[in-house]
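Researcher: Here's the sequence for the chain we discussed earlier.
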Amino acid sequence: MMNNQDTPERFGDYYLIDRIAVGGMAEIWRAKTVGLEGFERNVAIKCILPSFTQNPEFNSMFIDEARIASTLTHSNIVRITNFGVIDNKYYHEMEFVDGRNLRQILQKCKEEHVSFPIDSACYIVSEICKGLHYAHTKHDSVTNEPLNIIHRDMSPQNIMISYEGEIKIIDWGIAKAKGKIEETRAGVLKGKFGYMSPEQAEGEELDLRSDIFSVGIILYELVTGERLFVADSEVNTLKKIKEGVIPLPSRVNPDVDKELEVIVLRALARPRIERYQTCYDLYDDLVKYLHKKFPAYNSLKLSKFIKETFSNEIIADRKRIHGKEQSVPSYSAMSYSGKISGDKTRISGHTGNESAPEGSSSPDSGEIDRTLLTDSSPASESEFGVHEKEEATVTVEASDKSSKYDAEDEDYDYRLPFTKRFLKPKTIITVIIMLGIIAYLAFSGGKKKQSVHTVTQLPPVQQMAQQQPTPQQPAPQKPVQQQIPQEQVQQPPVEQQKPVEQQQPVNKQQQQQTQQPTENAKTASLSLASTPVYANVIIDGVNRGKTPVTLKDLSVGKRYELALSADGFETVTKYFTLRKENNNLVIPLTPVQGTGLSYLSLEVEPPVLIYIDGRLASTYKSIYMHRVDPGIHEVRFINEKMKIDYKMSIPVGKGEQVKKNITLR
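Model: Thanks. This is the structure I predict for it:
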């Protein structure tokens, strides 16, 4: 692979314009593909460095990255659009993002002593969470099984931000997913040490919460301007991660308020069970905070900040790239024919007696004569006259004369005269085949018309024979009735021709059969539950007890008015109509605002017994709007079969509604 030089280098179907980045095993280039009629496409090309092309492990990782990233289609993830081998090197064709990675932006802010805006920090991390949540919850399109994708290398270097304010996650090279070729061996650490989770630093089995911790490190660095885990060596960096000591963000940057600090610290909780359980939960809290503190914020503000920060670099880069792109041909034989060929083709519009104009390229020079492809000036009437009187010849020359081919094998070209356009062997054969098909269809169609004609216009004798039985219509009915048993087996609809008197008894029996289930299904039961439980149930103004309750005397098809009420909750009024069976209603109640009451909601995996302050609160995996007193509550989760017995303290403020998603391992 070439160095960063002024002249772009050809790489298969691509022209490598500028090297964007060089990593431990691969490099990324800004590249361009060129096609007909000025069609151009900017892409990013990632390929393995020459020193690693023969390394099976790196090749497997590279293939895994292509396989994983190609399944991800999301606005916050850079797409891989092609994968292949050129010059014995694997490469990815990726979506090109015109911008900077987050590490470059942070470094630039540090050099210019500029604080990264807190609103932009929250927005960037919320967009990262959207992309990660999509990847974490991705399912196989065929089997619908979860792919269990974990990035494992979330860091500022792997987050691209375009000049238009788009946020994209890149580099899934060490991502963990179901069906990978290269599996990480136990005890082997992969990723950037300063952004690892404690379980990753310990070499433990990872889940999606490892990515959440890494995102928390990025959020901490954005809002404080300081690296969280940095030391004089990798060993000491890992030691700091394992210890899990997190300085309060508000002490590093006083602009970080208490609400944002709680979000940052929860993302960085060392025990996985106390961390955000999904990226969606972190995204939800960040968006709520952003809308509350910065309601007018949008991506245009981020775009403006990035453009102003890199204004000089943007101008210099565009001038440099523009200069390099000037040497990229706007048309190539490869893009015209759709395949790579070593032969150089020249198409000229001269007659056989004319000589090539001065300065024109020879076939061996590797240039293309665009006499018939582009017109530098409008053609005069005399030039058109020459083309009308004289046939322009198309000569195709190649360095190897044995590879010459006839112009008649080329596709249709509107620039050639009539004789070359239409009087070709292929065209003549096609016309002959089409004429034969038309003649065959005309001949067969005539036969069909004649056969119809002979049927519709019968001879007079046959017409008379058909007309004779007309006055004696009742007589032929007897043989028809004798054939009814045979016709009933093959054609059931004949039964409808039976007399009405015979059908009436059958209809009465059918009506009785259809009426019986209707009479039995006049009433049905309703299973009614609410969250929280023990809500008052009022149906059509009559008190029917407290939830959970099963009511068995309600009428099918009748419209009822249902009201649920509980102390401290808003009354819910709904209308419902029962079906014949399987009538279930579960209705959540909303706490009344401003009452000062506190509630705790828990969603737990796997199912456990949930004890709050020593009292059993739930025998399943969730509890919704459980009323508690303000203060710190001890919550205990028990599952004897899975040997789970875990305790945690959850603070609940006055009038606060605390919700937690918890995964127990």
